[in-house]
Amino acid sequence: MTHSYQIFDVFASAPLEGNPLAVVYDAGDLPGEAMQAIAKAFNLSETIFLMPPEDAANTHKARIFTPTMEMPFAGHPTVGGAVAAARRAGGLATVSLELPAGVTRCTIAPDASGATVVAPQIPALEDGVVSTSVLAGVLGLDEAELGFGAYKPVRATSGPRWTVTPVASADRLAAIRLDTNAIKALGAGYESLYVIAPTGEGAFQCRMFAPEHNIYEDPATGSAAVAFAALFAQWGGAGDGTHELTFLQGVEMGHRAVLRLGIDIADGAVTEVRLSGDVVLMAEGTMVF
Q1: Are the C-beta atoms of residues 138 and 183 closer than 8 Å to each other?
Q2: Which residues have CB under 8 Å from 201's CB, separation 6+?
Q3: Which of 137, 215, 229, 231 is the most buried (most CB within 10 A)?
Q4: pLDDT in tens, 119-142
Q5: Dihedrals φ, ψ of 279, to 5°?
Q6: Cβ-based neighbours of 200, under 8 Å, separated by 6 or more
Q7: How far is residue 125's CA from residue 132's CA, in Å, rounded to a whole number?
Q8: φ/ψ of residue 136, rounded to 5
Q9: DSSP character for 27?
Q10: How far is Cα 63 from Cα 100, in angstroms, rounded to an integer?
Q11: Residues 155/128, Cβ–Cβ less than 8 Å
Q12: Coil vs helix vs strand at 132
């Protein structure tokens, strides 16, 4: 059995920046157990598997795996997978991927250097009180440093679930000293921690930690940025219309990544979120096993 694969750096304008992604092609013959094992072997934040669609109107069915679990939706695999699918087909302008979270519509840059994907689910805040004292202990920060403006720590979802933690400034991101033993106290299903600070008008810097899922830190996390759109609509003072946000991530890891978000708001509620980024091919090969 052989399968070709490529590795892309996503949310990056140059190789060895952003978040690396493995794309496995023609994966329709692989059972889920094999996909999970391959993702564990690649040991990247995520691996995406492309296969024939269930609906011929779409480009591919796709499944996304971390080294330990399957994801219903994830940002950098969807952006990178869309670009990979478009290139492999000879240069498509649009791609639609069938993900567990829903069909995702993707627009490919004219030179296939990136993509804009429509999030398959509208992000939302979730119930449950997030203890600032627990979060401060997990992050190694003072409790007074959590939150900025009207933003406060909260649980949110974009398909995946997040504990989203605003902090006062970008220098507090560099000061984080994560207590991996305490992170379970965030609650089952919410151990993935997205920490975000303001850096300017419509601009943010962030870090993401998910040690419970074998990802100590992720250099670029699109689904977490999509989840933040729910906070932005409720607490960011945004009116109806289209808003453009920029997120810088991976700085502390030496993997600078830039994510862009377009958010449509009507009657105070998010109606669509679009995630954009650049993609660079880094490696390719064939799996033989």
Answers
A1: yes
A2: none
A3: 229
A4: 999 999 999 888 999 999 999 999
A5: -140, 135
A6: none
A7: 17
A8: -60, -40
A9: G
A10: 7
A11: yes
A12: helix
Give me the residue label for tokens 């699109």.
Answer: 222
- The amino acid at residue 195 is V
- Tell me the angle at which helices 75-88 and 222-235 cross, rounded to the nearest 10 degrees: 120
Indicate the pTM of the whole model: 0.94
Measuring CA to CA, which residue among 289, 91, 60, 71 is closest to residue 162?
71
Ranges of each domain in the chain: 2-116+278-288, 124-277
Token code pair at residue 256: 């600078």
Q: Could you tell me the CA-to-CA distances from 138 to 133, 186, 190, 253 in Å, in that order?
A: 9, 9, 13, 19
Residue pair 92/86 in contact by the 8 Å Cβ criterion: yes
Helix or strand or coil: residue 78?
helix
Residues 147-180 have pLDDT tens digits of 999 999 999 999 999 999 999 999 999 999 999 9
The correct CATH number of 124-277 out of 3.40.50.12780, 1.10.1650.10, 1.20.1540.10, 3.10.310.10 is 3.10.310.10
CA distance 216 to 265: 33
DSSP-assigned letter for residue 276: E
The catalytic residues are 46
C-alpha dist (Å) from residue 58 to 20, 85, 102, 169, 210? 25, 12, 12, 42, 32
Contact 141, 178 (CB under 8 A): no
Q: CA-CA distance, 70 to 44, in Å (whole number)?
A: 13
CATH 3.40.50.2300 assigned to domain 2-116+278-288? The reply is no
The contacts of residue 8 (CB under 8 Å, 6+ apart) are: 20, 21, 23, 80, 83, 84, 279, 280, 281, 282
Write out pLDDT tens, residues 190-211. 999 999 999 999 999 999 999 9
